[in-house]
Amino acid sequence: MSTVFIALQANEETRPIIEAIEIDNPAAVVNRQPAMVKIDAEGSLVIRKATIEELLGRSFDLQELHINLITLTGHVEEDDDSLTLSWNS
User: Fold this and answer.
1) Among 10, 27, 75, 77, which one has the highest count of C-beta atoms within 10 angstroms of its own C-beta?
2) Cβ(70)–Cβ(35) under 8 Å?
3) How many domains does the chain have?
4) What share of the chain is helix, strand, coil (3-state, %, to 5)?
């Protein structure tokens, strides 16, 4: 398998997003740095709108994720409910 990752700015807006990613991807490796947080996962990484909304206590549009996105790697599959990074075999 190959590793995928997402890197987000480290700020108050991304804190619940990062926490949601950790909840939904328990095997992911989170690397916190002063200005960014990079999350690596073997095979695939799923970001679920419902988990983020639960932590935020409000509605969340996954497009908001792009405001604080630095970079990512992997094939992106996105719909209204989730964003998945993976590599096609």
Assistant:
1) 10
2) no
3) 1
4) 25, 40, 30
Question: Looking at residue 11, which CATH number applies to its domain?
Answer: 3.90.56.10
Selection from 69, 63, 68 nearest residue 82 by Cα: 63
Helices (H), the chain: 15-24, 49-56
Q: Is the dihedral of CA 16, 20, 21, 22 positive or negative?
A: positive
80 has pLDDT over 70: yes
What is d(CA 10, CA 78) in angstroms, rounded to the nearest whole number? 23
Q: Which domain holds residue 72?
A: 3-86
Please give the residue that has the higher pLDDT: either 89 or 66: 66
Collapsed DSSP state (helix, strand, coil) of residue 80: coil
So what's the pLDDT on residue 61? 95
**Segment 30-79, tens digit of pLDDT:** 999 999 999 999 999 999 999 999 999 999 999 999 999 999 999 999 99
